[in-house]
## 1
Amino acid sequence: EGAIATYGADAAYTIDRLDDKLREYMVDRPVVFYRLGSGSFDGRVTRLVAELRGARARGHAAPVRVEDPGPILHELRLRRSPAERERHRRACEISRDAHIEAMRYARPGIYEYQVQAALEYVFRVNGSPRNGYPSIVASGPNACILHYNENTRRMEDGDLLLIDAGCEWGYHSADITRTFPVNGRFTAAQRAVYEIVLKAQLAGIAAARPGNRYEAIHAAARRVLAEGLVALGALPRGLEESLAMHHYREFYMHGTGHWLGMDVHDVGDYKIDRASRVLEPGMVLTVEPGLYFDPERETVTYHLREYSEDEMWERRLRYGAAAAKRMDDEEKAKAPTVVHGGPRALRGIGIRIEDDVLITANGCDVLTAGTPKTVDEVERACAEAPRLPRP
Ligand code: GLY
Ligand code: MN
Ligand code: MN
């Protein structure tokens, strides 16, 4: 209860004083902006609403409506003001420098958490008080675990290292992923996958412009990834079928990005009236395609059926996750299947490339530009001597 009092501008309010403040605020307001579901505040607000009903008879405009302020505030947070842009840009620059140092610093034989220390040292020493989210420093097979953040593995020669990390600066979070070879050189198989992910990411960034719908970014990236998977021999069917049947999801099981701001997965609606929203200048989002080849899986059983991801979401919302899964399982059971094993050399490779972009008047500005990204840029950064001492 004491902690709740500190939500107020004046942390010295006792809970009783807080009730007085709320009453004073509410007695002449027909609308109370309050986000229901906020723990023990709910009871307090509804009790006051009930108590103040009587005030209407005395001529006060006491509350008749409780409205969630979320959608209003979220729309405001979705478009960066000039001052917010500068803060966000700074978070991205510091994070860029930290990723560069991580590329220099990593080498076979040291631990993931040691690279994490070098990366986060660069965050802190540049004035970032905290991370935007827990740093993912995932080497070798760990790169295939999407939210791996134990960061305890000793890195080996031949591993890739996937780092997904961003600092917070001025209350804005960066969110960068880079994947690079621990020994400084991509193998042929690693490079082949890397080039596909990079091409997909560039296609996603090209689609991030005003007037385009948010979903255009995912559609562009997904198509390039599926094309690459077909060319690698990882999928049982051609491009159009692989897309319509969503077979690429075996290797690309997440979306291509999210709003980015004060939170790493920031607030804001992705759809309006069921349609993907149109991008506008001032919005900031991530573009982060990836491919992940499970190290232990030799074959995959693919269902030969087309489906719509939108419909799947709609079902989940209307009927709940368990019922939606049952319906999906029933449909799968009716579909023919094909078993396919991809090239062995791909197993254990996990690659993601993530940048942060600000939508501008004619396209987008990559706030994380300068973080090495092409194969050459990455190998060059890996070959540099670290600025920080290694163990
Ligand atoms: N680091 C979390 C994300 O990329 O979504
Ligand atoms: Mn992200
Ligand atoms: Mn990320």
Note: The CA atoms of residues 28 and 60 lie 5 Å apart.
## 2
Amino acid sequence: MTKKGPVIGVFDSGVGGLTVLRELLLQVPQADYLYFGDTARLPYGSKSAETVAKYAISATQYLQSHGAEHLVIACNTATAMALDAIVRATPKNISVLGVIEPGAENAAASSKSRKVVVIATEGTCNSHAYQRALLQRGVEAREKACPLFVPLVEEGWTDHSVTEQVAHLYLDDLFNADFAAADALVLGCTHYPLLKPLLRRVVPANVAIVDSAEATAKCMAVSLGASDGHSIEPSVKFFATDSVEKFRRAGGKFLGRNIENVVHVDIET
Ligand code: DGL
């Protein structure tokens, strides 16, 4: 890779984190990127914190050994369950940014009622990482695991009537009782940004939809400072632990463009 800016390693359990990379490419175009999708070991959302930490540390070490100077933990579940363990296992000269603090910051900034709803995987919800991050900002959160959304998005059913029905089942009861005044919905999973138009139809019109991917990219842009005006496209190299072909096919819709340069990684060796 010809170096022309900082090298950012982006890690996710699979292709979902490409929604974060997509935002990074828009907001931090002066960097070069390494993207690691642990497709052989996903989903992380239903695994224990110990397992998620072990997987995430091996993946981020792989990114470091390939030159990453900054790490973005694009996976909400890995951020929720293993961010501290990843930071402890990472040399101090490499920065580590998860998606939860930026997402919580954005939600807190957009909520007037100080009540928000967070949707995420089982693992993220059970960790209550979003709830804690929001409470620190004076905002109460109701968390709801929506495990069917990940397979539905991977199936490409982002605008399907079945997905809309599932969304109603998950969300219709959330904006009531103590949370009737909730005015923000945090998308606490890499896959959910693809459901934004559908979710817009399902949640009350006054509810702001907060995308952790956008918030994280903004945070990275602020910490790296303004672009120095490079006109060259950022280079991106992809690593996947399962089929390269599958990654390329599935990843395109998350990234919003065709994917080349995928290298297969056998992480066990
Ligand atoms: N990337 C995960 C997240 O953002 C969703 C997919 C998985 O469960 O591995 O929580």
Note: The CA atoms of residues 16 and 190 lie 5 Å apart.
